[in-house]
Specification:
This protein has 948 residues and is mostly beta strands. The chain folds into 7 domains: 13-58; 129-163 and 470-579, Sandwich (Jelly Rolls); 167-266 and 446-461, no CATH class; 279-439; 587-710, no CATH class; 764-840, GMP Synthetase, Chain A, domain 3; 843-947, no CATH class. Helix content is 13%, strand content 37%. Strands 45, 46, 47, 48, 49, 50, 51 and 52 form an 8-stranded mixed sheet that branches. Strands 6, 7, 35, 37, 38, 41 and 42 form a 7-stranded antiparallel sheet that branches. Strand 62 and strand 63 (946-947) form a beta hairpin. Helix 6 packs across helix 7. Mean pLDDT is 89; it is low at 944-948.
């Protein structure tokens, strides 16, 4: 809103015309002008001219006030350029690419380009960040995160699923090939392993052993439930596995193993009932055995046994225990009488191998005096399980098989011919019948086929120390890259959620890389993140001895940052880590523009072609006028780069350009001061008069300027809007800004200067009262729309809202830091910096639910859009409110205000059922809070129809 200056003369045209007409009788008594009279037309023209003079006269106080403020140095705040991180994406297969500083990039806005330029040189690398791990060394925790989370998502590095686990795996394809209950004795484990959980793999999950005890120095694992120990692939090795887990890191030092001395044995337990066969065959016919509790009797060699009849017994668990002792017991259905026992009966006990059937060596009979078991009575056999037994197929079934063949003699004849009496006698055949088969086995202490540990997400061969942490004592962040980086500077942008300036900052973060010396070495970085406490770049040169390292189960090129967020009460969320990302500012570089020619006159003025000006360098050709003494004085005062000599092909100096320095005014300038004063918003440059400020020497086109133009709110762009390079760079495929461009502000309006000026005179650049703080904050940048100072809990809280059109304007961290530094320089010395907090506003979202009855159903669709638009505008913290001046901090939202807003919208007949945040009452706001738009639900309805 424009500031009205006091009117010197308040008369307008009508009043002036009447005054002139009233004077006619006194000066021209005989003239009575009528309509169309030329004299009357002249009077009206004169009245219009007088009104214009009065209008100009009434502007004099405003101009004098402006000149007064200008004399005091109170001028419009300059335009501020927006800044954004800019990421360069290389083409597939490209090598490293140099991105020079000043590289222009653009975003399209209407018919014009909004140009940004990179601030520094950057060496873009084809490497990609593929792994991101956060490690809390003190708590022995590991968290894995994507380098770039999904849209709208942030990650808290040290929260979530802890991937750290410490496991010991023992694998054996035969020894652990069991179904049902089993007991194992383990040797070679040192320490309280019996206190750890032990598990076996079964039915696609890890199941706990029923009992874990220690007896005579042996660890005893007992499985009492059904189900087999199944096969699983661990670290590329398929086997049958058992494992234990070391849950507490405090136990790690107390646990050790003897890798070569670990043995596993399955003993014969007292009272063991034995195992039921998996299946049996008589010749090629399967036999129904029934169940262990209700077995079926059967004939192993049919009811009429004959030579080469074969009885097969299959059992995966017992017969797979190579070199173990196996015992097969048979409960016979009858004892064959002695007279029916053919002593010539010969049985061959064999086992299956990949190369065929082989005879079992060392077979012993159980409960048979002859030492040779022939199924004449209950008993059995025992043998050492052959080392070369393998699964084979019998009757279409693959299993570990033992078979018995009749190779000699028989179990009697069906018919006997009496050659003496020449007649057939009744047969003497007496085939064996088996009621039940039970199999027992035990194994001698055997080394596992495989011993593996899993620590820090890595599998390794079993060593003496099975469990160990990563070795980091502090919180660390590991970054894994798929390719080796080279040279530099490499620039990586770390995006963090905005933090208030007053929040605790992390302690020193140190960066490391893994070197060819097989150790972590310090990586020298330029850290713009304040130790990963705020968004910013991390820049570095890549050491030559940077090599691959296996970490977390992957061989990559690793960096790590140690001391992450140490000392912080709350860790900020990371929004992403972007490689090949540098800072870009909303400026366009104008090089070597001829500003003009000096005529040697006093107080010369020139104007730049482009505005607003962000920064500039003015070079003046002083060839022939610059003495050696002056040259030496300039070099000593302003540095070696303050003088530029131009030479021809022969090396002869053809021009000497001196860089002149900007000044706020000429009051402190002498006749020898190479100063100029610039009005950056207008691009106007003014030089001294020879007394206060040196006059540029006479010359044609001898004033040269290089400058940056840009700035303004138009540069505040959303993420991914900057997408086009203005100049081509080989092997750069695309660019984007991963975060919004922020901080852009237009040049301060004159009315704002007039409003700020008296306050500046009042506080005299010193903050004493709360109003002083608020006024001084408004002078920091034109990007600041509103500020509030609140004293709470003996702390001074300064809230800043920037000029932004979004629903929730949030100040950037650089703006917050700028405000804090500005305040610290102007505060009372009795106010310690620790008591000052600068932060963004606390927004209270307001969601409106309402039934709206339109005057006509025909306008329902367009009316809904109009209502949502009006509601969002009304709730905007800067431009909303009943007077469209925004919402003051601590100002409640009254439900009556919303009723008035909605019912004033054209097309609305009336509204009903209005709620704010689900309640039919006002929204209370704290002094640190202000309103913003939330989620709304507008229901358009009539008496007979509801449109949702």
């Amino acid at each position: 809103m424009a500031i009205e200056s006091p009117k010197i003369d308040k008369r307008r045209f009508d009043h002036l015309l009447k005054e002139m007409e009233d004077l006619i009788p006194y000066f021209l008594p005989g003239w009575k002008p009528g309509e169309g009279d030329a004299g009357l037309a002249l009077i009206k023209i004169f009245a219009h001219m007088t009104e214009e003079v009065i209008h100009r006269l009434n502007r004099v106080p405003r101009k004098h006030f402006g000149a007064f403020l200008d004399m005091l140095g109170i001028t419009p705040l300059p335009a501020a350029p927006a800044k954004a991180p800019l990421t360069f994406c290389l083409s597939e297969g490209a090598g490293h690419v140099m991105i020079p500083g000043g590289t222009p990039a653009a975003a399209r806005a209407g018919n014009e380009d909004i140009v940004f330029a990179t601030e520094k040189n950057m060496w873009a690398t084809p490497a990609k960040l593929v792994r991101l791990f956060a490690v809390d060394g003190e708590k022995d925790e590991i968290f894995q995160w994507p380098p770039i989370p999904g849209p709208g998502k942030g990650i808290e590095l040290f929260k979530g699923e802890n991937l750290q686990s410490h496991l010991l795996y023992l694998g054996h394809g035969g020894l652990f090939n069991v179904e049902g209950p089993v007991k194992y004795d383990l040797n070679g484990l040192i320490g309280p392993f019996e206190t750890l959980p032990w598990e076996y793999w079964s039915e696609n999950q890890w199941l706990a052993f029923t009992h874990v005890t220690k007896h005579d120095g042996k660890l005893v694992l007992e499985k009492t439930g059904p189900g087999e120990i199944g096969e699983q692939e661990i670290n590329g090795i398929k086997s049958r596995w058992i494992r234990c887990t070391a849950i507490s890191s405090e136990m790690h030092p107390t646990l050790a193993v003897d890798p070569g001395g670990i043995t596993v044995a399955k003993p014969l337990a007292e009272g063991e009932t034995g195992l039921f066969p998996d299946m049996v065959f008589c010749n090629d016919i399967p036999i129904d055995l029934g169940t262990p509790g209700n077995p079926n009797s059967f004939y192993p060699f049919t009811t009429r046994p004959g030579q080469l009849h074969t009885f097969y017994i299959g059992h995966k668990e017992a017969f797979s225990k190579k070199n173990g002792l196996v015992k097969i017991l048979f409960d016979m259905g009858k004892n064959i009488p002695q007279q029916n026992r053919n002593q010539t009966l010969g049985l061959s006990w064999e086992y299956g191998t990949r190369s065929g059937w082989k005879v079992i060596e060392g077979l012993k009979a159980e409960n048979e005096k002859s030492g040779y078991y022939r199924f004449w009575q209950s008993g059995g056999v025992s043998f050492k399980c052959p080392a070369d037994i393998e699964p084979v197929i019998v009757g279409g079934q693959e299993n570990y098989w033992v078979r018995v063949r009749i190779i000699d003699g028989d179990y009697g004849k069906e018919l006997v011919y009496d050659s003496v009496n020449q007649k057939w006698l009744p047969g003497t055949i007496d085939p064996p019948i088996i009621n039940k088969i039970t199999i027992h086995y035990r194994t001698e202490p055997t080394n596992p086929q495989h011993g593996i540990t899993f620590n820090n997400l890595e599998y390794k061969e079993l060593k003496e120390v099975p469990f160990y942490p990563l070795g980091d004592q502090e919180r660390s962040l590991y970054l894994g890259f798929d390719k080796k980086m080279q040279k530099g500077p490499i620039s990586m942008y770390v995006s963090l959620e905005n933090q208030d300036e007053g929040e605790t900052k992390p302690l020193k973060v140190e960066w490391y890389y893994y070197s060819g010396d097989d150790e972590w070495k310090i990586l020298e970085v330029e850290d713009h993140t304040q130790n990963l406490g705020e968004s910013g770049r991390v820049e570095f040169f890549v050491p030559l001895d940077f090599v691959k390292k296996a970490r977390f189960g992957e061989e990559l090129y690793w960096f790590k940052a140690v001391g992450i967020m140490a000392g912080m009460e709350q860790t900020p969320e990371i929004r992403g880590i972007h490689l090949n990302t540098t800072a870009a500012v909303q400026v366009e570089r104008i090089k070597s523009e001829i500003l003009g020619s000096s005529d040697g006159g006093a107080s010369q003025e020139f104007r730049l072609r482009r505005t607003p000006v962000i920064s500039e360098e003015i070079w003046i050709d002083e060839t022939g006028t610059l003495t050696k003494e002056e040259k030496q004085a300039v070099l000593e005062k302003n540095g070696e780069d303050s003088i530029r000599e131009v030479k021809d092909e022969t090396g002869k100096t053809t021009g000497i350009y001196v860089r002149w320095e900007p000044a706020e005014d000429f009051f402190g300038s002498s006749a020898k001061s190479r100063h100029y004063v610039i009005q950056r918003d207008a691009g106007q440059v003014r030089f001294g008069d020879g007394i206060h400020g040196m006059i540029p020497p006479t010359g044609r086109d001898n004033i040269n300027v290089s400058y940056l133009v840009g700035g303004g709110k138009k540069g505040n762009l959303s993420a991914f809007e900057i997408s086009r390079l203005k100049t081509s760079i080989p092997h750069v495929d695309s660019i984007f800004n991963p975060e919004p461009a922020r901080g852009g502000a237009d040049t301060e309006q004159l009315d704002a200067v007039f409003k700020r000026g008296p306050c500046s005179i009042k506080h005299r650049d010193r903050a004493v009262t709360r109003e002083d703080f608020e006024r001084i904050v408004s002078e920091v940048s034109a990007a600041i729309a509103r500020s509030k100072c609140v004293l709470k809990n003996n702390r001074l809280i300064i809230i800043v809202i920037p000029h932004e059109t979004g629903d929730k304007p949030i100040p950037s961290l650089p703006l917050i830091k700028m405000v804090k530094n500005h305040i610290l320089e102007r505060r009372l010395n009795t106010l310690s910096p620790g008591r000052i907090t600068v932060q963004g506003p606390q927004y209270v979202e307001v969601g409106i639910d309402v039934d709206v009855f339109p005057v006509s159903i025909d306008i329902a669709v367009s009316l809904e859009s109009e209502i949502l638009k009006k509601v969002k505008e009304f709730l905007h913290p800067l431009y909303g409110g009943p007077e469209k001046k925004g919402w003051d901090f601590g100002r409640d939202l009254h439900i009556s205000d919303v009723y008035a807003l909605l019912e004033a919208i054209e097309g609305v007949d009336h509204v009903a059922n209005l709620t704010l945040n689900g309640k039919e009452e006002d929204v209370a706001i704290d002094e640190l809070q202000t309103l913003c738009s939330g989620k709304h639900r507008i229901i358009l309805a009539t008496k007979t129809l509801t449109v949702r």
